[in-house]
Specification:
mainly alpha, two-stranded antiparallel ribbon, 434 Repressor (Amino-terminal Domain), 21 helices, 4 domains
Length: 393
């Protein structure tokens, strides 16, 4: 078995392929030569904004820099190819309309697998489910609920494509989700589609364009009728996406504005955070997004301080997908503050609560690579995580 290269290693290979020296690439990325050197050898993590800068300088996609998270050809590749075929043939489902109770059970299972970050099991379910739910909607005579279910399944498919670093598939899925949402005449379905659309720009490192998508979606949704919990969840989620995009774009004012507006909406969620149409919103998730923004805006010490009590007692209502991300962000913040033991502990928590996410998440892998480079064999639990992530044999 071979190990999978990290983002830093891929940057070095691509740079050398283009016969570019470190000084030239560092200058184009807007960082120091020393910083780039440390990223390439694994002494500093390649953060999303730095990967975006490297991708622009090297004229490749961010996905090319992150690389394939799988060590060798696997069943996941076959399943992704099957999903890609189903998404491409979106108006030509091969499945028949299933019994309503069977479809409802499959929809609930897909949503649960997504929330639990069990991406492989979700991928095994998706192709047939997309065919079934589309066949049901196309036979429904324009039923808005049926088309909303199609949009929800595409949202689950987007999560898989995003996590498995398939940007072309993610783009195609978002267009299909938007298509299905438009059949519902439901502004919430269109807002959820816009949330994922902005996510494709986020993954590509095109933060300003993603911010434009979010601002447009917010304006449209604010003018739509409705003021209940569903409205709060979807509008609040759009602002949370805005928090990530603005902070990675290093726009502190826009970040603060999205945080402020998200917090105001979160105050209207009584009790635990709410999960609707694969979007989680409430005070807990808003706190997690604010924490992540502090890291992007170069305040890792504050982020690490905020993360400590959240890790000890994660906000109620948050699924493993969100708690796992909290742990990964905490690991990143602690690494930035040179708390190496704390970073390792946070990663171990991520592997415990959301193992499939932790194994393939770019920042989990980057933090782990730095810790592994610094400690090597001196910490056995690092070796276990590095092997699970494919970073070492």
């Amino acid at each position: 078995m071979h190990s999978t290269p990290s983002a830093g290693e891929n940057i070095a290979v691509l740079r050398k392929t283009r016969k570019m020296n470190q000084a030239a690439l560092a200058r184009r990325m807007g960082i120091s030569l020393s910083y780039l050197s440390k990223i390439e050898v694994g002494l500093r993590p390649a953060t999303p904004p730095l990967v975006a800068a490297a991708a622009a300088a090297l004229k490749v996609t961010t996905a090319r820099i992150y690389g394939d998270p799988f060590v060798e050809p696997s069943a996941q590749h076959e399943l992704l190819t099957e999903l890609r075929t189903v998404v491409r043939r979106h108006t030509l489902p091969r499945e028949d309309v299933p019994p309503s109770n069977e479809l409802a059970a499959s929809l609930a299972q897909a949503a649960q697998l997504r929330a639990d970050t069990r991406y492989v099991e979700l991928l095994q379910l998706l192709s047939a489910l997309l065919g079934q739910v589309t066949a049901t909607a196309m036979a429904s005579d324009g039923d808005a609920v049926a088309w909303g279910q199609v949009a929800d399944v595409y949202s689950c498919a987007y999560a898989v494509a995003h996590r498995f670093r398939q940007p072309d598939l993610a783009d195609m899925i978002v267009s299909r989700q938007t298509w299905a949402a438009q059949q519902t005449w439901n502004p919430s379905a269109e807002a959820a589609a816009a949330w994922n659309e902005a996510g494709t720009y986020q993954s590509a490192g095109e933060y300003s364009d993603g911010m434009a998508i979010i601002e447009r979606a917010i304006v449209r949704y604010e003018s739509a009728p409705g003021d209940g919990l569903e409205h709060v969840v979807h509008l609040g989620s759009l602002h949370l996406r805005g928090v990530v995009l603005a902070s990675r774009h290093e726009d502190a004012n826009a970040t603060a504005d999205h945080v402020r507006r998200a917090k105001a909406l979160a105050e209207r969620v009584t009790g635990p955070d709410v999960l609707q149409h694969n979007l989680t919103f409430g005070p807990g998730n808003t706190a997690l997004y604010e924490l992540a923004a502090q890291i992007e805006l170069n305040a890792p010490d504050k982020a690490a301080e905020v993360a400590a009590p959240l890790l000890k007692n994660p906000p109620s209502g948050l699924k493993p997908s969100r708690v796992g991300r909290l742990a990964i962000d905490a690991a990143r913040a602690r690494l930035a503050t040179k708390d190496l033991v704390g970073a390792e502990d946070a990663l171990k928590f991520a592997f415990a609560v959301a193992p499939q996410m932790a194994e393939i998440h770019p920042m989990a892998r980057e933090v782990l690579r730095v810790l592994w480079t610094l400690h090597q064999r001196s910490r056995p639990e690092l070796l276990v995580m590095a092997k699970r992530s494919g970073l070492t044999d």
